[in-house]
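Why predict the complex rather than its parts? Because the way molecules touch one another can change local conformation, and only a joint prediction can capture that. The input here totals 378 residues.
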Amino acid sequence: MSPLAITLDFQRGVLKPCNNVIQRHLSDMRGMYLDDTATEEAIGQSDPLLYEVYQYDVPFETGQLLVVTTVLQPGKVGDEYYMTKGHFHEKEDRAEVYLGLQGQGCLLLETTGGEFKALPVEPGIVTYIPPYWAHRMVNTGQGEFIFFGVYPADAGHNYGDIEKTGFAKVLAERNGQPTLIPNPKRQKR
Amino acid sequence: MSPLAITLDFQRGVLKPCNNVIQRHLSDMRGMYLDDTATEEAIGQSDPLLYEVYQYDVPFETGQLLVVTTVLQPGKVGDEYYMTKGHFHEKEDRAEVYLGLQGQGCLLLETTGGEFKALPVEPGIVTYIPPYWAHRMVNTGQGEFIFFGVYPADAGHNYGDIEKTGFAKVLAERNGQPTLIPNPKRQKR
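Output of the joint prediction:
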């Protein structure tokens, strides 16, 4: 393939050209937020767009890299902040790099071995997701939370494990502040 | 290894924390510019710093990624703009991604098969270096040229081939403008 220049709009997060745009609405994340009643009410009213992913696809081969930006909207489902689905990589030993561009958020990470970590992200913060760490971004700010990412093109996505178990902790509003609380849905399983 | 947050200063290009800083002075690039007399004069006077690389090293294993920023100074050796050494990856099928943060420059690329490409870079331009393409950055602007990069940690660097042959074209000032010209040193080999 040929070398390529892509324009990244730091303010809006859009990549041009871009050959893979994904939109996630709340209905794509049924059961992933704590408050199922609030989830169904919001889906019934407007099924809000939670985030858009702009990815430039190249062949999914070892050695190639995927460039991706994510625009995560501000908002809450019940008292839980909007977040991405979160995933392990299908090839679990593939890392990922994020760079915060706009807004305020938090990267939640965990391993199957029970380790958990939360890293605040803002413009200029690079986060390194090592091999074997599942990752989810959460928008804890008032505006759009936008970040740039690069990961190996052969990594693949395993969303299923996180859909089943969730993360060990969730980010909910407590006393007006984003607060990490243990995931009560996880306890019940 | 544990997840990690690194602060990237968009204005200065510095990474904190950072465990690998490389400085390249002109004396590290003897013979790589067209004008050997101008090179030796400049080395004799001040041996100017051409660029600094801030890299966060992780284990050089397949699946890991390296995060790197480069601060390339403005200036010329003779009429040729300051540039990086340029390299193929040792594992030639490893790609690389750059994101322009400050200043104006140009990415020169070529394959061993004789293909050549030049891509202008400025803030917000993401360039994709596919597998098998050697790559060199050139500062064609008045100020520092700063860019962020991500590449596979197992890629390695092959500087030797470019040291021997140079790139097919070089960026020199002609009528006050950065201009791509065929590399006369290459013709002589």
